[in-house]
Amino acid sequence: MTVGSIGPAEVSPIGTTLERHLLDRQRRMPEATGDFTGLFQQITLASKIIASRVSKAGLSGILGLTGKTNVQGEAVQKLDMFANNTIVSTVEAGGHVCVMGSEEIEQPIPVPIQYPQGKYVLQFDPLDGSGNIDINASIGTIFSIHRRISPDGTPGTLEDLLQPGRDIIAAGYVVYGSSNMLVYSTGVGADGFTYDPGVGEFFLSHPDIRIPDRGAIYSINEGNYHNWDEHIQRWVDWIKTPNENKKAYRLRYIGAMVADLHRTLLRGGIFAYPQDVKNRKGKLRLLYEANPMAFLVEAAGGAASDGKNRILDIKPKELHQRTPVFMGSPSDVADLLRFVGD
Ligand code: P6P
């Protein structure tokens, strides 16, 4: 087989890079202009830069690489702002987006007028779970892409950002862990790519991820038990109690939504961050945490609810609004809803 003749259906001898996967997808869409592929490549580049800096974060106390002044005496941004600025500067010049929304920035992020105002809208949590950095636990980047609804060629608007999750055209995350993985979906199925730092590329390692119908793990911060509503307390008491119909579920909680949901996608089970007396609307953000992760979970065959409604059906009202989150294996989410619905 000569390398040049490999078609999309054949497996390349070097494995399938993310770029190859995106180009194969583009070739299957005659109307594709390459804008989506270009935007995705910019996001991927930003994630590689972030991964490189995150891997050195542990040196900050020694080399002043993070959050202090570095060896040249330059002020160095905190990692989450570094991640935010890396994504913004990598994407804005590409001409594929008209506006961005970030957990780190209060207002919509406009694309400078010297750049084309593209047809897409990008929202992201640049470094989810950044509290885990100091203990070298997993963190991640979460993103979602919508099409703009404001007139083409004009600066993007807040309304472009306040679209429901069901209108997302693609979403993904990068988890910076024992290995760095990127998982994305354009709506049907989710594909996982593992980063090879020696090559500097993501390679397809988890094609067509499908979440099990039921798992054996529940993921929730039980330290909030006494702050929860009674029906959540009853659900947690039930899920960890064995009976004649079920074993006790095991508790796993990494403290970074992207990592807990990555495990949930691969192993099944349920991730929950309910509302509580301190966070009556929940803690997690709808637009750049819950929506993209709900899009991915549903694309992999799972379910994602706020306890009453499908998360992707929520009509956003504010850029940083919060929502309760229950997502994972469909049967596990259905069990939870039986308690919440009581
Ligand atoms: P808690 C990280 O700070 C985060 O936003 C999510 O990634 C994570 O699931 C949650 O908060 C953890 O919150 O209150 O359990 O530390």
What does this protein look like?
A hairpin with a 4-residue loop joins strand 7 and strand 8 (201-209). The protein has nine helices and 13 strands. Helix 1 packs antiparallel against helix 2 (35-54) and helix 6 crosses helix 9. The model is unreliable at 1-9 (pLDDT under 50). The chain folds into two domains: 18-208, Fructose-1,6-Bisphosphatase, subunit A, domain 1 (Fructose-1,6-Bisphosphatase, Chain A, domain 1, 2-Layer Sandwich), CATH 3.30.540.10; 217-340, D-Maltodextrin-Binding Protein, domain 2, CATH 3.40.190. An eight-stranded mixed beta sheet has the order 2-1-3-4-5-6-7-8, sandwiched between helices. It has a five-stranded mixed beta sheet with strand order 10-9-11-13-12, sandwiched between helices. It is 29% helix and 21% strand. The protein has helices at residues 18-27, 35-54, 60-63, 79-92, 158-161, 230-239, 257-267, 286-299, 330-341; strands at residues 97-102, 109-110, 120-128, 139-147, 170-176, 180-185, 190-196, 201-209, 217-219, 250-251, 270-273, 303-305, 325-328. It starts with 17 loop residues before the first helix and ends with a helix. Bound molecules: 6-O-phosphono-alpha-D-fructofuranose. Residues 128-129, 131, 221, 255-257, 273, 283-284 line the site of 6-O-phosphono-alpha-D-fructofuranose (P6P).
Q: Estimate percent helicity.
A: 25-40%
CATH topology title of the largest domain: Fructose-1,6-Bisphosphatase, Chain A, domain 1
The CATH homologous superfamily of the largest domain:
Fructose-1,6-Bisphosphatase, subunit A, domain 1
Write the element-wise H/E pattern from the N-terminal end onward: HHHHEEEEHEEEEEHEHEHEEH
